[in-house]
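User: Run a structure prediction on this.
Assistant: Running it now.
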Amino acid sequence: MFAIPKILREVPESHFETMKLKLANAAQTACDRLSAIRGVTPIKPSAAMYMMVRIDFEEFDGITDDVDFCKKLLNEQNCLTFPSTCFFEQGFFRMIICTTTDTINEFGERLQEFCSAHYKV
């Protein structure tokens, strides 16, 4: 209860500016990397630590919905994402972007491999 006023009073504005810049760079990195993958479309966030990614199910064979997509991605590539069904939406997954650009690029590589394995012929 008392922590938030103290944090807002004592943490320098430069900290928040640095954090906003890091998140903006992470969002751009994720958008650039995932935009190159057929069957998914990243939705660039304006101020968040996560990003929603649309799944085009017409591109994939044997994937029924966002829950199925996320389960298979976890089992096959060890990548944890959240199906948009968790957020009362369908057809998307949510990925965390408050991490390093190396981690985002690694996720992009794994997602690319996963998608390639499931594309319709």
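The beta strands are 40-43, 50-55, 82-83, 92-96.
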